Backbone:
């Protein structure tokens, strides 16, 4: 800003062009126009940001609806369709009421268990019937033996009795072997069923648990890194703001004290001015050089320090004059409060994410027992989508950086062109009348400066205007040199 100030005392001595219209008030008016341009640009950026936020909120709602729909489809694919289950069990009212909200796999296992229990009861009844039949046969045989004993004196002498005893023993042995074979067969059938389930789901469960553990760990690590970076950035901004606030308060207090001291000295000087005036004057007296007192030297040094401090603050805050320093600090305070509120909101979002992570861990434990073959495909598609999302985020970040650099460069070019235009407006050129500034009492006649276009179309007209002025000055300069 100071390098381009062609109206400073040093630059005026170089080019020799002065005018009574180049007052501080005119400069302030010009800089106020530039500030209005900056405020308008910030308002437009804020409006664009709000529109983008609303659009992103709408897209977020649509994504939430799609997630709910897809989650229902996934739930039906993983746990089974409950409506189809109720339709299947419509003929069995008791089973429908008992198992309509359960998973199909659990319902099948429960039906198998009921079938197994009923089959076991049937086996028990058949065994009891066999026992009763055997007991009936034994009783009939005993009845026949007793009848034979009544009929014959020595029943053991009959060969049929010996053969019947041998056949009865063999029948008992065959029955025992049959029961043992049935028990062994049932045991081996259960073992085979368990081994089939183990062969189908064991590897899938282990792979899924491993993938879920890695994904949850990566998610927690990334969340921790983001939270740590945000906390460090917030601490740095707080420390910088505190340091700047202390320096500003200290400088303002020193300035206030210096102003009060100066005001007191001016008041004392105004009261004692009559005593300092001479009653008679001598026209032949020469110039008298009054030595500066220590208080005056100290006052000048204090004033120079105040001006130096204010210039440093003006350069650090990038404002045009000293009056804009306090509003700039006020704006920074508003930004600090906004960032503080945003940090609190980020902490709340972090707590929500932790709760969601705990809920996801619980759901992972629940889904470990309800794994299907399509889960691996879903995991692979999920990883591909996450990779594509990261690529799109990186491209978006790069595009935003390029756009930011271009916008900064365009803003600097526009400001430089506007400053050049403001400096050359007072010169008169053929066909272009000089701009007339209003007087001290013509506040109503003040015209606001033209606003720059955001797309850069107005910069072209300013550039052509400056080229015409430069050509005009060169021609005039060469004409003056030709005269001499």
Residues:
């Amino acid at each position: 800003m100071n390098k381009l100030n062609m109206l400073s005392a040093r630059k005026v001595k170089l080019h020799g062009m002065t005018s009574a219209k180049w007052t501080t008030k005119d400069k302030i008016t010009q800089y106020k126009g530039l500030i209005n341009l900056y405020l308008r640009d910030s308002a437009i950026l804020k409006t664009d940001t709000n529109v983008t936020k609303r659009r992103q909120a709408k897209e977020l709602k649509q994504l939430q609806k799609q997630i709910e729909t897809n989650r229902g489809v996934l739930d039906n694919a993983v746990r089974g369709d409950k409506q189809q289950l109720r339709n299947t069990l419509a003929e069995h009212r008791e089973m429908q009421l008992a198992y309509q909200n359960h998973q199909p796999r659990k319902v099948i296992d429960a039906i198998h268990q009921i079938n197994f229990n009923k089959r076991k009861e049937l086996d028990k009844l058949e065994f009891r019937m066999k026992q009763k039949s055997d007991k009936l046969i034994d009783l009939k045989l005993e009845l026949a033996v007793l009848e034979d004993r009544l009929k014959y004196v020595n029943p053991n002498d009959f060969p049929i009795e010996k053969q019947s005893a041998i056949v009865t023993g063999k029948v008992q042995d065959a029955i025992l072997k049959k029961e043992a074979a049935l028990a062994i067969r049932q045991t081996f059938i259960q073992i085979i069923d368990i081994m089939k389930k183990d062969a189908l789901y064991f590897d899938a469960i282990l792979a899924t648990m491993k993938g879920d553990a890695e994904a949850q760990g990566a998610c927690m690590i990334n969340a921790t890194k983001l939270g740590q970076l945000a906390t460090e950035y917030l601490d740095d901004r707080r420390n910088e703001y505190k340091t700047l606030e202390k320096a500003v308060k200290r400088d303002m207090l020193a300035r206030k004290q210096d102003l009060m001291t100066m005001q007191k000295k001016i008041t004392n000087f105004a009261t004692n001015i009559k005593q300092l005036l001479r009653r008679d004057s001598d026209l032949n007296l020469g110039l008298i050089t009054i030595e500066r007192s220590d208080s005056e030297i100290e006052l000048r040094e204090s004033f120079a320090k105040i001006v130096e401090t204010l210039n440093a603050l003006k350069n650090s805050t990038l404002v045009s004059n000293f009056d804009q320093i306090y509003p700039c600090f006020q704006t920074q305070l508003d930004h600090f409060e906004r960032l503080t509120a945003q940090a609190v909101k980020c902490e709340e979002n972090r707590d929500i994410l932790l709760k969601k992570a705990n809920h996801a861990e619980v759901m992972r434990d629940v889904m470990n027992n309800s794994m299907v073959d399509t889960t691996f495909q879903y995991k692979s598609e999920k990883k591909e989508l996450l990779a594509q999302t990261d690529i799109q985020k990186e491209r978006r970040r790069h595009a935003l950086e390029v756009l930011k650099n271009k916008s900064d460069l365009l803003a600097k070019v526009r400001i430089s062109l506007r400053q050049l235009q403001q400096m050359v407006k007072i010169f008169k050129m053929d066909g272009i009348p000089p701009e007339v500034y209003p007087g001290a009492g013509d506040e109503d006649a003040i015209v606001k400066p033209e606003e720059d276009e955001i797309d850069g179309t107005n910069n072209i007209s300013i550039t052509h205007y400056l080229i015409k002025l430069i050509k005009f000055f060169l021609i005039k300069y060469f004409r003056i040199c030709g005269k001499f």
